[in-house]
Design brief:
The structure is a homodimer. Chain A is of the alpha+beta class. Helix content of chain A is about 25%, strand content about 25%. Chain A contains 17 helices and 38 strands.
């Protein structure tokens, strides 16, 4: 048993070892015969030759009469040729050419006489308007080479050539075995500690995109003998098996042991992050992958290790995807020990493509959904600095980036509603929002990296919003402040207010507070409110526990891990929380001159002025709409 | 009944009229609810919001111990903190954080004592190694906007957020009704006059690619009442119906009449070629298209008129495809009356992208299969000259063009075998062959448009092959002549030689000959052979009937429309013809210096030298292989 315990094998090496071992042992390709009509998108297993010619007979290419061309020689405008009934045959397009005929004259050029004869005023050239046998395809001709994808027109060509079945590469069957005591099937109502098993659904969808056939097995508890039995069965039935979770070296991580006992562990531990504890193994010509449990790790392991194996099955050229050059918005620090994969958002603003790293947590499946690209930091590289030019692998079509409105700044659920309405109004347009707080939004606009920034920055001196900050950070102007909404800020507290909280004054009394991050408008507001009320924020328990959105603050209170937090009415509403209004503030949009005339921004302003937007905000609650979408002031 | 008879409506106008009429009458979109796990690739009908947060509880992000962080404050390397059993809880990754705890210390940093207490040498920060509720997704948050494609990670995000079902746009059902008396289902053995019905298979595959659901109805004979009944039924069951053939204005073309009686003909006759007799109609909010019978016309009508309608159903942005700039290899002449669609082969040679028009016959389904791109000649434009820069819509991925070996020249079935072996050897490489005869190949190399040209040009003065022609057309050299094969040329005649043909001398005796095109090596050979034997080619019947390949000459003889033709042994073999050998000739490859060092050409030479190539040619028969793939001479 070639068993290695949590090595740190470089990705290239691990992949090469895995592919070579499976190739040696005879992993795919296998073929199957399918009806040609069902073969679209499949890969031919061998070259396809025409059985018959198409057309398979001499056919008329026109409606008209078939005749022997020689009989028409000499016909002119002044000396027409007359043909008797027995000298021609009426034919429609596609009709066979009768014996002895070698030309067709179009019906438009035939003058019928009362006695059944016809006159022709021009000679016919031999073989005119006749489709020769094999004009399209000749019997014996190669229609499709091996390993080619069957297209709709190839289906037509094969059927025309009498080929009714075709040998194609069989889709590899890939088993997925979810394991774990806490794992439960998807539900809308899990108990604390229940871990919803959705990896198999993600993996199945990925496998189908790669032309493999997923087979998902029932969840197996963390017991070695049960895992072993499940893996053995799956290996009998599939070409490759994913053993999901238990791939690490913890108390209940049996994967490596089980794979080693049933077959061979080729490698345990790959120098990638996320995805390090991956296990690569095989039993005979079947492949086994021990896949880490966190969804992001799992997706990466499948991308980097299973996809190449499937490409090897199909003997297809590796699909490396497209890459773009982008400027990095924030520094990315990486460990020297690992090749690190960083999901990024891409924003094209004012002609410049900017990559913003997304959360790197392995549990963040949403970060994969939001990602536009993947940045790879090679092993041995410490990372990249903000402003570095980096190569990013695209996860979506590049042309959609040109039509994506980039919003960076303060969070409000209304931005998602705008994104939805914008895309409905113009399906070619998208909107991507990143929540970095009001100050972060101003800075992004200043760096030329955002089309629009949501902002609600209080001027502590006069209680006005936004104008003072914009004056300060854009002394030379070049931006517009666009009116959006007034919104109610207040204390979100548990439903029914079990602790009897009356207002901000109660916060220092031992309550568990949850705060927003520094630089956010809401943090500036609570800091200001505490200061003016003489409340010592050091005495507020949890004042340094920071969340990045109104909804995540609300989620902590609803989950019972905090008692109060400052936020907007709509967030409290979503979670059914009680809400003590504190003040009405102005939430506006900062739009730089370089973005104002883009079709996306203009469309956004239309959305803001629309009835649909007003209706959606009424449903959310806590907003005051006066003239949303109008320019308040140009700086 | 708004009925118009074979108008010539410009495409843009016809399409706009069709789309507007259906939009007005309420054609799609409709939605349906599907399980999230099955939703990959589907389009959301409305925005999707999270039901629950993910994680839905405070979870440990590590294996270790959960504790109240305050208890660890002050711990240092020299003054560790000791915690009693009741002060901490052992947790694995994913476990819920017990009441009263607000931090996790990794197992690596915990020193267990024999008495069950633990020592910590560093303080824990509040909330460290804890996944906050909603860290990934907050309940109430918009996960996906409307009209977005569901990705594998979006499936994961929805399931994590307790969303088990999702409203997606229903796939439009499109009925296909094949009509015609001569139409039969696909068969390997059709009778003369039988027209094999493969359009419905092509259309079905196209519809699936466009996310529509095809429903193919049985073939309907050319009787108006039967067509009407079939259309009425299909309109009840589908969202759109394709009535295939009978769309013109001939004797048995009932489509327009039937559509007009059941609903409304919006337009009959569109100014496109191929595809002119298309009919656009509707019944209520259901669409009807009368689609011409020739496959190429049908594919174009679906592309230009049905695809935009389906995009309207999905309210998706029109997919215009990618375009490239290319140099036109040959002139394209077009009628002023029509917008003309010309399939082209694209070849990238020496950095230059060349577009070669393919056969424009509407019956040529193979031309669609071979096409790399589509050139559009607008209505009112007479065409383009050879050498013009034209914009071509890509029908395959642009990067495959960089890896496609362009062979232009004389035809031999061995080229297809080379293409097959080349692509098997390197799945990233492709080979495209165009048969224009030996002289055509030399000219293509001279123009810098081919990597390789098959050639067998006889020097009439000394009976040698190729060298004299190359000297003449490449006086300054820059090319290599690479040895390929010797091959047997001779007379192909019907099996069993029913006419008792003995040799070339019998040709002028009233036999029906079928010839190769001027400029082909075989034509030069037969011209030469007749001249040296004193045979008058004017007396050979059919000497001016020209085919472009050996196999198409053989197909005419096998089909009984000709008695004899000059060609190679392997072509006669494929058709089971008798063969009277006349001479052995040298078939070589001309490779220009600019192409010699490309990976594709080098790989081709390896293929020529391989055993696999030798085996395949032995199976074809009639070849003599000495040192294929070696450079015979550099010029």
């Amino acid at each position: 048993m070639a068993f290695e315990y949590l090595t740190n094998l470089p990705l290239e090496e691990a992949r090469a070892r895995f592919l070579a071992a499976l190739d040696e042992r005879g992993f795919g390709p296998e073929s199957e015969t399918v009806a040609v009509a069902d073969a679209c998108g499949r890969i031919t297993a061998r070259a396809v030759y025409a059985h018959i010619s198409a057309p398979h007979y001499l056919a008329s290419a026109m409606d008209g009469i078939a005749l022997h061309a020689e009989r028409t020689f000499g016909a002119t405008e002044t000396t027409p040729v007359v043909l008797r009934k027995e000298d021609f045959t009426v034919v429609d397009t596609g009709d066979p050419i009768p014996e002895g005929c070698d030309a067709v004259v179009m019906v438009e050029d035939v003058i019928y006489q009362d006695d059944g004869t016809v006159r022709l005023y021009a000679p016919a050239a031999p073989w005119q308007h006749i489709r020769q046998i094999g004009e399209d395809i000749c019997a014996g001709e190669m229609i499709l080479a091996s390993r080619m994808t069957v297209s709709p027109s190839a289906i037509g060509a094969m059927l025309a050539a009498g080929v009714l079945e075709v040998d194609v590469l069989r889709r590899p069957r890939v088993g997925i075995i979810p394991t774990g005591d806490e794992i439960i099937p998807p539900t809308a109502d899990p108990k604390p500690g229940d871990i919803v098993e959705f990896n198999s659904s993600i993996f199945s969808a990925m496998l189908r995109q790669w032309d493999a056939e997923p087979v998902t097995y029932p969840i197996v508890p963390d017991r070695k003998e049960l895992i072993s039995a499940a893996l053995s069965k799956a290996l009998d039935e599939c070409d490759a098996v994913l053993l999901n979770a238990g791939s690490s070296a913890g108390r209940e991580d049996y994967s490596a042991q089980v794979i080693g006992e049933l077959g061979t562990v080729l490698c345990h531990g790959v120098a990638i992050r996320p995805g390090k504890p991956a296990i690569l193994g095989c039993r005979g010509k079947k492949a086994v992958l021990g896949v880490p449990g966190y969804p992001v790790s799992g997706i990466l392991v499948l991308n980097e290790l299973l996809k190449p194996l499937l490409e090897q099955w199909y003997r297809s050229a590796p699909d490396r995807g497209e890459t773009v050059q982008a400027t990095l918005a924030r520094a990315v620090v990486s460990g020297l020990k690992y090749q690190e994969f960083v999901r990024v958002r891409l924003g094209k603003v004012n002609g410049k493509l900017v990559a913003s790293p997304l959360s790197r947590g392995s549990g963040m499946v949403s970060s994969f959904m939001k990602a536009d690209g993947m940045l790879t930091v090679p092993q041995g590289v410490e990372g990249y600095a903000a402003g570095d030019a980096v190569t990013v692998q695209l996860l979506r079509r590049e042309d959609t980036l040109d039509n994506t409105l980039v919003a960076i700044g303060s969070h409000d659920p209304l931005l998602d509603e705008c994104a939805d309405l914008l895309h409905i109004a113009d399906p070619a347009m998208f909107m991507s929002s990143t929540h970095v707080g009001s100050m972060g939004g101003l800075m992004a606009v200043r760096r030329g990296e955002a089309h629009v920034a949501g902002t609600h920055l209080l001027n502590e001196e006069d209680g006005t919003y936004n104008v003072a900050s914009i004056r300060k950070y854009f002394p030379r102007g070049g931006v517009s402040l666009v009116e959006c909404v007034g919104r109610t800020q207040g204390l979100m507290i548990a439903a029914g207010n079990p602790l009897g909280i009356k207002g901000l004054e109660d916060l220092p009394g031992g309550l568990r507070y949850v705060n927003r991050q520094k630089g956010s408008g809401t943090r500036i507001l609570i800091d200001y409110l505490c200061k003016t009320r003489g409340l010592d924020t050091k005495k507020i328990s949890g004042y340094d526990r920071e969340e990045f959105t109104h909804t995540s603050v609300a989620a902590q209170i609803a989950g019972g891990t905090a008692d109060a937090g400052m936020g907007i009415y709509s967030a409290a509403q979503i979670y059914g929380l009680d809400f003590l209004p504190v003040c009405m503030e102005q939430y506006d949009l900062l739009i730089p001159d370089y973005a104002m005339d883009t079709p996306m921004v203009q469309r956004l302003l239309e959305v803001l002025r629309s009835d649909a937007f007003r209706e959606r905000l009424e449903a959310l609650g806590g907003y005051r709409l006066e003239n949303p979408g109008t320019v308040r002031q140009h700086f």
